[in-house]
Amino acid sequence: MRSNLLRVGLAMCLGFILAIVALGNIQLIQREKLINHPRNRYFLDLAREAQRGGIFDRQGETLAFSVKSGEIYARQYPLGIQAAHLLGYFSETRGSAGAENWFQADLLGQTGILRAWNLFQSLAGKSQVGYDLQLTVDARLQKTGYQLLKGRKGALVVLDPRTGEILALISSPGFDPGKIETDWDVYSTSDDLPLFNRALQGAYPPGSIFKLLTYAAAVEANPVIIGRRFHCPGFLKIEGRRLNCIASHGDISLKEGLALSCNVVFAQLAMELGESRLRDQAEAVGINKRIPADFPVKTSSFGPEGEMSANILAETGIGQGELSITPLQAALLAAAVANDGVLMKPYLLKAKALPGKEFTDLSRPQAWGRVMESRTAYYLKEAMVEAVQSGTAGRSRIAGIEVAGKTGSAENPQGRAHAWFVGFAPAQKPRVAVAVILENTGSGGTYAAPVAREMMQLTLSLVGEGE
């Protein structure tokens, strides 16, 4: 009898302990994730009645604020469509998205000292308040960047390669976050997918911008390859198939091969390197990995593991095949080269403040890891500068500033090539890195490079203001 009671007692104790662990997991570990879930009914109700914190850019310009309408608070977005995917929206019926969702716990005052304060406010029957947040972005870059895309499907990411700060995050076409309730059916059924955040969730074949990684893998494996000469007759025969180049380049160096975006050089390098080295270099920059940002990003993909044929290796080496990357991932690639081979963790939240108080800086730049040796990054910078000065990236040139860049024209089954550009400036002391993609537009050198040029030039002019 006693042994049975002991078993029952032990089972009850174990069940109690498991319940405590489960509740602790929900309350402590998963709390913020559950708060930020766009369909969390409790927080949807709280957000309607609470004075949600304001959102500001790095200069203090207002990006989002609350206005009381009767018994509830309505959200206003001064930049409208120009910052739609960055800020997202808050809606009673549609939930939340973008920064309104990513930082919802702070905006609703459910973190830090405001959490306790708001509990007392609630018990007293008074309105709850949230933290004001300052993001790393610059509203002027957001406005200009969206205008430069001219409604075309695509994305634009601008960041500081030294810190990982996101300076602009743009997806096109956009939507008016102030009309998310009334125009939801229009937005959600449009073939242009205006609600889709292409900058963070779009997965595209990288095309020739991937040659930066093929180059890096080759130099990391064998540094003396810098002095090697290659011969490009305008095509390469691989297992009975002809892989064409954009031109017959003749005898060229590795540096010239990148500047001229020679398919023959990089297909040949990929076959020599093999899948393992290519995959390792891609994963070093974050492909196949979760990006450690304070916002969600789709994981870029190198493709399924398994022995690659010579043809698939060649395709991969020039950025085709089964590769897919996000525009943010492309910007991180450029930033890693700019920062001497060290990749910084990207982030958006710069500071937060109690209502009516001064902002407290939260930015703590952190290195994610070393992508390549500084020597390799140096060689890549030189080749990217050559691409701008005398290669495919000429339309990204800025008078008086040395720019490093790489274009890409990624083939896809849905029509014309996607136009890519990644780069940074000034080349020797980079302050800005950028990635541009324009869907189904054509040549990256023709269409994406000029957009990047304007964004880099504007960013550097704003840096001159003392940022």
pLDDT < 50 stretches? none
The overall strand count is 19
Structural class: alpha+beta
Number of domains: 3
| Mean of all residue-level pLDDT scores | 91
Assembly form of the protein: single chain
Using only C-alpha atoms, the radius of gyration works out to: 25 Å
How would you describe this protein?
- With 467 residues, the protein is an alpha+beta fold.
- The chain folds into three domains: 2-31; 39-135, Penicillin-binding protein 2a (Domain 2), CATH 3.90.1310.10; 200-348 and 367-463, Beta-lactamase, CATH 3.40.710.10.
- The protein is 39% helix and 20% strand.
- The chain contains 18 helices and 19 strands.
- It has a six-stranded mixed beta sheet with strand order 3-2-1-6-14-15, with helices on one face. A five-stranded antiparallel beta sheet has the order 8-7-19-18-17, with helices on both faces. A two-stranded antiparallel ribbon has the order 4-5.
- A hairpin with a 6-residue loop joins strand 18 (415-425) and strand 19.
- Helix 11 packs across helix 13.
- The longest helix has 28 residues, at 2-29.
